User: Fold this.
Amino acid sequence: MKRDDSEKGGKEGHPSAADRFVAWFRGSSPYIHAHRGRTFVIVFAGEAVADPRLPELIHDIALLHGLGIRLVLVYGARPQIEERLRLRSADMRYINGLRVTDGAALACVKDAAGGVRVELEALLSMGLANSPMAGARIRVASGNLVAARPLGVVDGVDYGHTGRVRRVDAEAMRALLGAGAIVLVPPLGYSPTGEVFNLSATETGAFVAITLNADKLIYLMERTLPLNREGEAYTNLLPAEIDSLLRMVTDEELRGYLSHAADACRSGVQRVHLLDRRSDGVLLRELFTRDGSGTLITAKPYEDTRAARLDDVGGILELLEPLESLGILVRRSRELLETEINRFTVIERDGMIIGCAALYDYPADGMAELACVAVHPEYRSHGRGDMLLHDMERRALALGVGELFVLTTQTAHWFRERGFEPSPVESLPMQRRQLYNYQRNSKVFSKRLVPLPRPEGR
Ligand SMILES: CC(C)(COP(=O)(O)OP(=O)(O)OC[C@H]1O[C@@H](n2cnc3c(N)ncnc32)[C@H](O)[C@@H]1OP(=O)(O)O)[C@@H](O)C(=O)NCCC(=O)NCCS
Assistant:
C-alpha cells in the first residue's frame, strides 16, 4: 500500500503524523498503567443503544477491556420500553418524576431489557478481521446480580413493578470480573418473592459502584454537562458543591445523575465522571488525556496544576512573601510578577494558590533557570514539589531546552536528590552570570533533561 508522505519523517521543526502518533501514544502510557486492573462501572442509557454509532462506543469499551480494566456495564432501556408500549397503544406513566410500572409495562420492560442485552452481547462478541474488535474475544456475563424491592405506594400512588435496588451480589460480580468477563447489568432486579422490578440504571450504577468499591463510576449522559453561571461546563465538582447545585437544578434527569454521583462519592467511589455520550470518543478522551472531557466528581478537594494567570499574582505573592523574608527566595515585586506571569506554573487548591514555580529560558544557550519553587508549608511533603519540578521539566523540554539549572541557598539537597549536580557559576549563561549576586552566594545546580512520562491524570 502506498503511504502518504506526511506519515514519514516530517520536515525539520514540523512533526510528521507518525511522530505525532508516537508522541500521543507515549503520552497515554501513564494512564494505561494507572487504569490496568481497576474496576470501572459504566452507565449508559437506552438512547446510546438506539444510536447508529453504538458500535463505536462498544469498540471503545472493548479497548478498555483489552487494556486490563475490569468493566461493569449498566444499561438503560427507556426508548426501547416506550417503543414497545406504543406498539401496544399504552404509555409509561410518570408521577412525581417516578415511573409507574403496571403489568403491561413490566412485560415491555422485560422484553426491552432482554432485547438490549442480546444486542450488546452480539456487538461485544464481534471479532471480524480488519475491524477494531479483531482478536478481542470478550466474555460477557449477566444474571441475577441485583436484588430489588418494590418502591411501593407513595402519597397514595402504587408504583407497581417500579423498584429500588436492595442488594448487589458483589461476590459474584468480582468472580466474573476476575475470570476476565465484562459484566452486563440490566435495569431489572429480582426479589426473593420471585418478582421482577424495573430499576433506574442511574441508581443501579451507583449502587453497583458503591458495593463493588469501584475505582470509577462513569455516567454516559444523553445531555450536556452541568453548566456554571458563565455557561461553561464544570470540570470538577465536590459532593458539597453538588448539594448547592441541586438547589438550583430543576431538570429531573440531571438531578438524578448529580445526586447519585454525590452519593457514590460520599460512599467511597473515588472518582465519578459525568460525560456527554453524544460526543464521539468521549470515554477515551476522558480516561487517556490530562484534561479529560467531562465533569469529574471527587470526594477530596480538587487540586489543579496549571499555567499561572494574571489573577494569580496576589496568591503567588502571598505564598512567596514569607520565603523572601527568610532569605530563601529573592524578592520579586508585584509589577515584576505581573510581567513574568507567563513563566509561572501554579498549584491551585479550592481557589487558593498553594504552590508555584517559574522557568526562565536562555534559548541561545539551550538552558533554562528553574526559579521560585515553593509549596505552602501546610501542604509540603506530599510530592507537590516533585510535581512542580516535573511540570517545569516538561515545559523546558517543549521549549527545546536540554539543561535546567537552579540557584539555591538552602534547598541544595532537595535538588540533588532529584538529579541536579553542583555546577560552577561560570557554567551559567552569560546573561545570567552578569546578574549573579556574589553576596548571596547561591549554589548552582544543573540537570540534563531527558523526556519523562506524565503524572497520572483523571
Ligand atoms: C522545596 C519544596 C518546594 C518542596 O516541596 P514539597 O511539596 O514538600 O516537596 P516533595 O513532597 O516533593 O518533597 C518533600 C521532601 O523534600 C524534603 N525537603 C524539603 N525541603 C528540603 C530542603 N530544604 N532540603 C532538603 N530536603 C528538603 C522533605 O524533607 C521531604 O523529604 P521526605 O519525604 O524524605 O521527608 C518546599 O519545601 C518549599 O517550598 N520550600 C521552601 C522554598 C524553597 O526552598 N524553594 C527552593 C528555592 S531554590
